[in-house]
Amino acid sequence: MLNEAYLRKHYSVNPPASVGQIQLAQSQSTITFPQAYVDLLLLSNGLSSEGCLTLHPIEALPTRNTDYEVAEYLAGYFMIGDDSGGQAILINGNGEVFEVGMGVMSIDFLEKSAESLEDLLITQEGLTLGER
Question: Which of 13, 83, 86, 127 could join 52 in a cystine, given CB atoms 3.0 to 4.6 angstroms apart?
Fold first, then answer.
């Protein structure tokens, strides 16, 4: 299970997001945020690994999702970060984690990265598909 001690040991973390920040972003999203994502934001408002993974602070995400037209091309997904090399990290309403090229944003190129955020951050040790 993800907890603050684990995150601090393995990732560069940020102060927690506020409930208001999460609610504002949720109101601008086309998906209902999975509880595991909300729980992560309440522990750390974004984080980064020693490798390529970056999960962005919640306040930056509505704009990123609009700029990359995620709702138009990948309905049912929400971009939460990237691999620092052109691959978007997305979640769906079930909490599954996916990766896709930011220049493509097509369901045809969407690849499942992890079953959940916990799977990505613990089992996969924060490694993106390109690092595995």
Answer: 83
Nearest alpha-carbon partner for 100 in 49, 65, 108, 92: 108
Q: Round to the nearest angstrom and report the end-to-end CA distance of the chain.
A: 22
Choose among 114, 119, 93, 105: nearest CA to 33.
93
> Exposure string (b/e) for 13-27, b if CB count within 10 Å is 16 or more?
bbeebeeeebeebbe
d(CA 60, CA 78) in angstroms, rounded, equals 12
Q: Specify the pTM.
A: 0.96
- Decide: 117 and 2 in contact? Cβ < 8 Å: yes
Counting as low any pLDDT under 50, the low residues of the chain are none
Mean pLDDT of all residues belonging to the chain? 97
5: left (phi over 0), alpha (psi -120 to 50) or beta: alpha
